[in-house]
Every structure is written in structure tokens, then in C-alpha cells.
Specification:
By secondary structure, the protein is an alpha/beta fold. Helix content is about 35%, strand content about 20%.
Length: about 100
């Protein structure tokens, strides 16, 4: 949330696109990217027009309500496979050393 709020201040009121992905080698047992209703409320406040996220690596809480609120606010949410977003070159896939 703080990152979006900082970006909104830097953008000076312009529209933002947010990309939420896991870090290379992120331990998904303990630190999973999450999107929920609070995330969408912050996106509204920060004038976010779209959210791209890791498919299969991001938890989406209260899915129906998140989609409903995002749709009403004109926010597009799209999940992409990690290879579509871009993996860091030379790093092992998740869960492998």
C-alpha cells in the first residue's frame, strides 16, 4: 500500500499501473504476494487504472468482492504467468536452489 501511495505522490495525480509480482527466489511458504479489498481501496485512492499480477503466485482474497469493487472503480485486474511478466535471467525457478 505504501508503495502505491508513494508512486501516486510522485506521479502528481496521474494514473498509475501497478505490477505485483514475487521476487526471484522468494520463499512462497512464508512471504506470498496478496491482493484484497484493502489493496483495491488503496488503488482507487491512488488513481491506479490497472493491476498486473503473478498468476499462481499471488493470493486473491475475497475474489468476488475485489472484482466487483475494481470493476465499479474502472480498475482492470489481470493475472499473467511469470514468464509473461519476465523472470530474471539466470535464476532457478521457484522452489529450486
Amino acid at each position: 500500500d505504501e508503495t502505491m501511495e508513494r508512486a501516486a505522490r510522485i506521479a502528481g495525480g496521474g494514473s498509475l499501473v501497478v505490477v505485483k509480482v514475487s521476487k526471484p527466489r522468494q520463499d512462497m511458504r512464508f512471504d506470498v504476494p496478496v491482493v484484497g479489498l484493502q489493496t483495491v481501496e488503496v488503488m482507487q485512492r491512488c488513481r491506479v487504472s490497472a493491476l498486473a499480477m503473478d498468476a499462481g503466485r499471488t493470493l486473491l482474497f475475497d475474489r468476488a468482492r475485489v472484482i466487483e469493487v475494481a470493476d465499479a472503480a474502472g480498475i482492470t485486474i489481470e493475472a499473467f504467468p511469470p514468464e509473461a511478466i519476465g523472470e530474471a535471467e539466470g535464476l532457478a525457478p521457484q522452489g529450486r536452489p
